Amino acid sequence: MNQTPSGERLHIGFFGMRNAGKSSVMNAVTGQNLAVVSEIKGTTTDPVKKAMELLPIGPVVLIDTPGLDDEGTLGALRVEKARGALSETDVAVLVVDASIGLAIEDRALLTLLGERKIPHLIAMNKADLLGVVPADTDEVLYVSAKDGRGIRELKEALGRIGKKSGEERHVIADLLTPGDTVVLVIPIDAAAPKGRLILPQQQTIRDILEAGCSALCCRDTELASTLASLNNPPRMVVTDSQAFGRVAQIVPEDVTLTSFSILFARYKGDLMELVKGAAALSHLEDGDPVLISEGCTHHRQCGDIGTEKIPAWVRAFTGKNPDFRFTAGGEFPEKPDAKLVIHCGGCMLNEREMQSRIERSRAAGVPIVNYGVAIAHMHGILRRSLEPFPDALEILS
User: I need a labelling partner for 115 at 20 to 30 A (CA). Which of 52, 83, 353, 355 fits?
Assistant: First the structure.
């Protein structure tokens, strides 16, 4: 479990007013001093994340946030950061000073949680200051970070909600039958990390093995000989998006072909919305703003897919010269101001964050597509690469 990627962990966010005891409750839940605690208001100035194992839940990322009532120019920015943490929060804990009760800011957050359909609990902290402690309900629990009252019940409640939120999903296993062989095309070039496979490749291999199937890995340069060595055609070929064009020329038409990025569009995002977004590529004009966004940060190298290859493919496909802009990591605009968003596969983001970015784009009226769908469209093989997903194919009809 300690090796569970951040994007596959349940994200639990702690929210509330300054001095409600958010950090203290989080520390009590974990049994560790993960967050700095102080009587001074505004001690937590930025969202702080900690990946750990939390029984009875399992691998989680805990998020401690600034107070919802922070003041001044900097305070407003901190409040914005706190609310921004909702985009990656699977389960929210609203920590309230039980001796004061719900504040206006608390009620506003509860409304926002309801609108975004984020499961949540209200932890009425400082219950040790109450003369009579009301009974817990399914949503409201009375706790004390000071003497430990109700902390075990809070953890158990988080475990129940987390179990409901973490329904089993598959990268590829549900598309396979035990005994199938899947060929994975993994180019090894200057951009490939030394000595390891990237996360989407690792997760796809693991999902194939858990389905009782065989994963056969090769580079694009050995794909033809690999296919020729098989007694029977593989059930499917999955390729790195960058090699889509070359691989499509090698893989026979009767063999299903798709990409890691398209698989992850379904796994973490909204494949249907991303397929719709591909159509916007054909309507770009000179100077149109195009946002290329990645969920992780990495050292840019010559031939980088996001900053070099995709812009080059877009220019070649459209015959136009759009205005490309770039974001990486946790940086993604609340209201994208662009003609089109082209996003990576999101392997380092959790499902809620990826879907939040898609929703923000949709709300702003901006089409969004991911790398794999965009590259397949620009190479004229999108229909073929969507064969495993009939519902997405209908969008192209």
Answer: 52
How many Å apart are CA 285 and CA 215, to the nearest integer?
42
Query: What CA–CA distance (Å, rounded) separates 92 from 83?
Result: 11
In this prediction the pTM is 0.79
Higher-confidence position of 232 and 5: 232
The per-residue pLDDT for range 127-163, each reduced to its tens digit, is 999 989 999 999 999 999 999 999 999 999 998 887 7
Phi/psi of residue 325, nearest 5 degrees: -125, 155
Distances (CA, A) of 187 to 244, 246, 286: 11, 11, 32
Both 158 and 14 in one domain: the answer is yes
Domains: count for the chain: 3
Residue 389, domain member (yes or no): no
Look up the domain containing 226 and give its range.
173-263
pLDDT at residue 269 is higher than 80: no
**Residue 396 forms part of a structural domain:** no
